[in-house]
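pls ignore typos typing on phone
2-(3,6-dihydroxyphenyl)acetic acid + seq
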Amino acid sequence: MTTSSPETPDSPDYLRGFGNHHVTEAIPGALPQGRNSPQRPPLGLYAEQLSATAFTQPRAANRRTWAYRIRPSAAHPAFIRIPNGRLRTGPFNEIEPDPNRIRWDAMPPATPGTDFVAGLFTVGGHGSPLTGMGMAIHTYAADTSMTDVFVNADGELLIVPEQGRLRVLTELGRLDVPPGQICLIPRGLRFRVEHDEAVRGYVCENYGAALALPERGPIGANGLAAERDFRVPVAWFEDREEPVRVVQKFGGNLWAADYDHSPLDVVAWHGNHAPYVYDLADFQVLGSISFDHPDPSLFTVLTSQTPVPGLANVDFVVFAPRWLVGEDTFRPPWFHRNVMAEYMGLIRGVYDAKAEGFVPGGASLHNTWASHGPDAATHRGASAAELVPQKLDDTLAFMFETNLPITLTAQAWTADHRQPDYDAVWSGLGREFRA
Ligand SMILES: O=C(O)Cc1cc(O)ccc1O
Ligand SMILES: [Fe+2]
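k done
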């Protein structure tokens, strides 16, 4: 069964659409009319433009938001370096790039008192925010709501909860993100993550071009992720005149400044640089209705393109519940080697290429050119299966696919939750050759 996660009675309100220029005010009359920067903005607010692309980039790529806030953003003391915890940023060079196939169990529960940012554990990545290309992969486990406000100057954050509902309070409004939904925090936007329970999940940090919807090509004007299912929060603000620590990741390091107010004080805004939430249950899954297993690019939800046409810095791909009907077809993913690197996680259920060992909250990395595909048990089963229509129901896996080799962090390599003998899943694929 395909279900949408129920929203709570106090669910925040949203505007709909992908990449739209939204207009929203938490207090009627807070938005200036007819101009962005009047001599005196309404209600005594300060105007501020957030430019997320160069002023001069073409309209299709241009991103900016005008915010009208209680206190000016510029009024804060110096940022001071603080420890990076388990956050790492490219260039990734703690250990050598490793061609081996790697798999992890779920992260251990958070040490009590760990919030979302302290709970981030960088797995690896490539590129660097200093060159605006590449990405990092993080997992998180936290049990305590943030009191600090966080802002990432290095890239946008795609958050994929696996356990526990997140409440993400941003400068531009509030997002409610249960497992099964994803949220995107754009680069440079301040936010705080709260939750009432222990939470766990995955984060893709994208140093490159902002994630966008893929082209549909011959699919036509509909299908895959629909523009209207992306939800952007309405304006919301907190008016708190008290010390608030703002932690910023900049050039890979954490810096903190003690503000005398909450910077989540934007009363009205308009623009297209905004956070959003998307329910993966809304993804229209397309597949083969004749034969052969299609390339998983058909499951792309969002893509960050490089300047090379069709080559992604990051693709976010989802393996959602769907029917398999292919005739004379080996239905699970085939054996393959790929110039792209594939990091996979599991939000719920079972993934059709791995009979066991790939668990919710766990992850696998099949680096560039690594031989991988169905494990021996899956291969055995699918080669003998009677090919009646089959519904894959209890499943929600995803992939961060990226164009260059991923180098692990030392902590991801030595982690106790790394599985010691992942290669063994492909042993037992015996010789079946008959001349
Ligand atoms: O390796 C994987 O499990 C991901 C994957 C899935 C699929 O259906 C086809 C190719 C592919 O890399
Ligand atoms: Fe693969």
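Residues 293, 296, 333, 336, 338, 342, 353, 366, 372, 399 surround 2-(3,6-dihydroxyphenyl)acetic acid (ligand 1) (CB under 6 Å). The longest helix spans residues 376-384. more later
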